[in-house]
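Journal club prep, notes for RB
We'll compare a predicted complex against what the paper describes. Inputs for the adenosine-5'-diphosphate case:
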Amino acid sequence: MISPANIDTSDPPPRIRADESAVLLEIAQAAGSTLELHEVLERVVEKTARLTGADRCSLWLLDSTRDLLLPAAIYGIDPTFAARWKRKILSIKDERLSQEAITTGQPVVVLDAATDPRTDKKAVDFFGDKSILVVPLASKGRVIGTLFLNHISRHYTYPPHEVAIIQAIASQAAVAIENAQLYEESRRQRLELLASFRRIGDALAAGLDLPDTLRLVVDLATEMLRATVGSLTLCPTDDAPGETKWAPVDALERYGPELEALTDLANEVIQRREPCYVADLRERLGEIVCHGAPEALRTYVGVPLFLRGRIIGTLGVFHALPKRFTRPEIDLLASFGAQAAIAIDNARLFTRLQRQVEELSAAAQRNAELFTRLELEKKRLDVIFQNSTDAIFMADRDGRIIAFNPAAELLTGWSACEVLGRGCQEVFGPGLGETTMRLLAGEPPDDGVAEAVVVNRSGERRHVAASYAYVAASNGEGPFALAVVRDISRQKEVERLKSDFISMVSHELRTPLAVIKGYAATLLNPSLHVDAERQQRFLRGINDASDRLTRLIDNLLSVSRFESGRFRLNLQLVDLSDLVCRVVAALRGSVGSHRLTCIVPPEGLVARLDRDQIEQVLVNLVSNAVKYSPEESEVVIELRAFDDPSLVPVPVRFASGIPRGVLLIVRDQGIGIAPNHQRFIFDKFYRGDAPAVRRVAGTGLGLYICKSIVEAHHGAIWVESQVGRGSTFYVALPRE
Ligand code: ADP
């Protein structure tokens, strides 16, 4: 048993020593001198004990939501024990004295603690209590706790006027306690409001997006009012025409249907344009329209969210228990709502801005891609434009040239910087010029292609085919004409050569045939007597004409073999000295008065060649030398071995390509070949246009065949010639 300190058991029974009003004043002064709750409590118990002469005085506060008694302050025991005592929370039903005082609202007197059935015997034993007085602490009709006065030193009877005074003390104390509680609560709320405003302020500064801001607002409101759940509604806006209801996902999982059922509360807040408090939703069920009866949510407070005088939505919190929110809390929610409205507006603005920025950056990205594609396209077009072998030019609506590529420079002899801005007639001549102007006037050439002759700056005539494109006017520019001009001179030449060839081949065939026919008919005519010498001459004529026919047919066959890819070399070791001598000897019979001189190495010269083909080369070269040089002039056919290409009289451009081997030279003293024709004479069907050439029969195939055969042997053929002095053809062939 603990003995209370400083108790003198021999003293007369303690009595309240002062008069009632003085006592109450003293209590009021002691309790009212501070707003700190724990100080108020401590002072109440101390003063009460001192004034009443009780050995111990303690105070319990009631937690009505949980039906608990919380030990709040005690006087009359050892302070270290007091700390332990404060941790001893009791359930009301276990503390019968308090329970009675609270339920009746009346003081409870225990004259003999040891025998009274209502006392906790363990505690009585422990403290050595003899008599106990319990008074309820009531303020504004609400019991907030109980005040105990314990007598240990002796039994005490608690006369009624003393009980009345103690009751008055208790109400005085209750008011002071409640004031301190209110003060504490308002301080807590102030701090929380400050903290919440700070967090909302942080959110404003952080530029949260709308869903995050809504979550924060609801979370903070719920936390601040210690509510069970919060929800938010947003009125329709231009961006979001429908009304938006918002509650955190976790809250929806638990209270979704109920929150849905209570939607009309928000509408009520909007209509009333002021905070709305429902102390018990169950009592209001009849008044509000709802589709499901709220079971778990009892108290509601909702506030309108004002922004620049307009309601943008509502913020509401619910509590699972009824009558949970106080007026200050409602005010708190309203001020928080004002701040939240700004944060929501800000988030909307932020979201809108973000969307705009995203749209802008997407558009910029698309533009950049388009630009890159265009750049690439432009580069590709530029490469085509610059490297095209066809001349390309573009003319503006007045026919002035605005683009001109290198091939066009080559074709016309004008440089791009000279022609830009000039009329296309001036540069391309009247043919193309007029077609271009007609196109610009909306009259395209038939088939889109026009053929014309372009005379270039050095007076050379070129046949061209121009295909046109019309580029319609747009953005105040144009129309434009785009022309791709192809030089078809060569094609035209080939066409001319082909038709020449046909007439020439017919002539070439007919002449020897006419000779054969004439001689044969004469010989066969029985009425004509032909002497032996004439007979011999006729037969030689027939023989020569057949040789000529054979040569022509051989040449035609060779060409056809080259063209069809059927040409194959039949390589074998051939003594070229022997071959040259034999061919020259055979030709001597048919060359009339020309002198054929043959110079070959006497020891012979062996090379790996196709005998028949090389024979044809030699025959063609010697025939040409004879054809294109005057009667009785000399044609020299020479064969040489060579091992050092530098010794070979050869134009520089062939030097690197000359094989070590044999060199066949055919030199005449004929008409010669003009320098500008020399590079064409090896082309198929090409015939010189000098009258001396035109006079003699020919197909334009002889040199083409020579070149094809020599190149098939990996050799080279070229000519040196001077007009009027003669020509020398060189054939270089490898030995192996
Ligand atoms: P063809 O002799 O049947 O016309 P070629 O292909 O043999 O055809 O010769 C092509 C052209 O080369 C001749 O038309 C002629 O103009 C020229 N040519 C060839 N050989 C000689 C030569 N020895 N002297 C002068 N011109 C020649």
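Talking point for the session: Confidence is low (pLDDT under 50) at residues 1-14, 288-292, 651-655.
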